[in-house]
């Protein structure tokens, strides 16, 4: 029987009832007490033997429950398991023992989902969040459902204690909306000028996924626009840190902007109390509330005896002694109660923050997919119109069309992380001899690649700053687009978003020497577009002639799942590029 210590080892069902006999005197009477003493000694010896052997183990041997726990909660669970094992709980006549090993939740989830992670044999899994289990069950309902929570740790913002006061001046009250605002690439004059937001990769870390869910949920509820949210997510995708320890350590690195990140409350406590940095990190509790890491107990074994041990261990995890072990390691109990470790010192608060509702499996899956697509690399070929009309002035701006378009290009390139691959072609007519309407100014490649002693990003900016219109040139757009699209298809990279961007004044194609017609270029794009290897066309036009060509621009873009925009001012370019990024989330079925 589970948890019961036997006290009837001598009870074999036999009852000794001697019949009454007449007492004898003499020698027998002297030996009788001696015989009784010997019998008592034998009985005591047997009892002592049984008791000693009972302490050495149960009659039926031992059954060991194999537990795989998230590394952060592993020390506390190991201590509880050791105490449980020493208590000699008996299950089915066998002593129950607990063996606890570490296992990163993302790795275990990957293994259970069949996508390559190594999973050691286990009977019980304690991941840091039920989000992992929810994701697995969405794909495979046979995965066991998450059981009761073992502990809890809210996901919070984090900063270095040395800059916490300065951060509050720049960032205001800690909030998820504040984080979105600081990361919003569409607002270059916002808090992002002084604050740099660091994120955790949500595919590897539940705290990172929980933070994104909390931030996107509160932003949407408060009316934040989709472009602003996508812009923030794109920025965060370019500033991810692999794990919480690395993120917390980077908070103390000085720079032009104050770093702020996301982490679990317990990871901040562990960083401060185990790593003992010179300047500790401090938690910043979001005003809107937060999502918690909930450490569910997931029973993965089908063995009846092991499941019985798991139930006994589950009950043990809820005892006062176990709760104290967890609290002493910076965790909260499932009901949110913190121990003395989470005192008011160090910025920790005894009272648990408000808990936001965890989104359903569909919402979690959509956000994870959006993050994955936004986090794909960029391979971008920009076609820059240098035809004669680009030398004309733009009324009311003091700029020529060429100057306006190059400013748009410069602004657009700023939006892409350094891992991006970008190149520039110029187009007009006969730029490289008769019939060749384009010139490869900077070949497509990584922005950080060195080209003759100059980084590609710097080279692109130099070229844009010195580009001049060919005053006698016409607009050989169609021939140029056909060649560019063929090149990007040939050099397609599956781990990147492959795009052709056209920056023009919108005059369309007016090649007097013929070339590809408007009808032919549309047919070519439709034939060459492959939804399994999508290369999209994004067109941004600027100038008074742009509306005249809007119909044809729309047709060119939509033939490849892209879009076309007319900019009224240079500042709009950020919005247009973000609209293009939004299309990543639905491509190739937009």
Summary?
This protein is α/β, with parallel strands linked by helices and 590 residues long.
Protein model, in words:
The chain has 590 residues and is an alpha/beta fold. The chain is 39% helix and 18% strand. It contains 19 helices and 22 strands. The strands form six sheets. The chain has a six-stranded mixed sheet with strand order 17-16-13-20-21-22, sandwiched between helices. It has a five-stranded mixed sheet with strand order 2-3-1-4-12. Strands 5, 6, 9, 10 and 11 form a five-stranded mixed sheet that branches. A hairpin with a 4-residue loop joins strand 14 (393-394) and strand 15. The two termini are 61 Å apart.
Characteristic key phrases:
18% strand; disordered N terminus; alpha/beta; five-stranded mixed beta sheet; 590 residues
